[in-house]
Amino acid sequence: MSYFITASDLNSELENIFEFAEKELILISPYIKLHERFKSVLKTKLDNPELSIIVVFGKNETDVSKSMKKEDFEFFKQFPNVQIRHEKRLHAKLFANENDVLITSMNLYDYSQDTNIETGILSRTNDKYIGTSALGYFDRVIDQAVLLFDKIPVFEKGIFGLTKKYKNSEIQFDVTNEFYSNTNFNQKRKTERIKNTRSENTVQKNKSGYCIRTGAAIIFNVEKPLSSNAYISWKKFENDEYAENYCHFSGEASNGNTCVKRPILSKNWNKAKKEHGF
């Protein structure tokens, strides 16, 4: 079910997305300046390494602090399982947890929340069309955005691997200081990304595949049939037989008949094997 919401209801539902996020929280907004109310809710999540937080912001290429001040950036860096990215073309806004998706005109900016006339569409879990379509599209936006910071939790597996205990979190990537001090950062990263993409395209010509969770276009690899952000979500449980939504080879809906262990529909297996030579 989806709902059109405005005014105070919009702020209330956004706060609920923050509050009830236990496994996944996606925040996509060109401008981010956290309201103290939202900060308070988020602080309750600091001890939850199972919660994967993805933040994407953008705009103001020559003065990125206008899009998100470094103090807010540093606030997000405190969390045990977080990824922060920048996309200079970003204008869309989406906020989601594992249950709800909010597509809205409102930035995650205290002024917008207190002053502007804003609207949004809230999609509950059972609205597969809007929620799944939106997340599939924004999964590509996330993948294309420039990675600035990445921290992941480290777990210790218990007896028989049935339980796991949180040990600590490790920073995998951090260019915060470079990002906030270098006005040419995005141009430099864009050049590097174009070079890498051209190199990949040369090697992987005609080797395109699809994420089995979101349907987003990715490099074909039966060992890695998930996009980077879908993989973050899958990693929480690491169930390689969990039913997914799409065929890695054709991109068609699989109706739950694909999984990480079997990412290609059986009817497409021989054709995929012949075409990709695995």
Mean pLDDT over all positions: 84
Number of helical runs? 9
**CATH level-4 homologous superfamily of the largest domain:** Endonuclease Chain A
Largest sheet: number of strands, sense, barrel closure: 9 strands, mixed
As a percent range, the share of helical residues equals: 25-40%
Classify the beta-strand content into a percent band: 25-35%
* Terminal Cα span: 42 Å
CATH class of the largest domain: Alpha Beta
Count of the domains:
2
Choose one word for the global shape.
globular
Strand order of the largest sheet: 1-9-7-6-2-4-5-10-11
Order of helices and strands: EHEEHEHEEEEHEHEEHHEEHEEH
Radius of gyration over C-alpha positions, nearest whole angstrom: 19 Å
Strand tally is: 15
The CATH level-2 architecture of the largest domain is identified as 2-Layer Sandwich
User: In terms of per-residue confidence, which ranges show pLDDT below 50 for 5 or more consecutive residues?
Assistant: 193-206
Derived structural class: alpha+beta
**CATH fold node name of the largest domain:** Endonuclease, Chain A
Oligomer: single chain
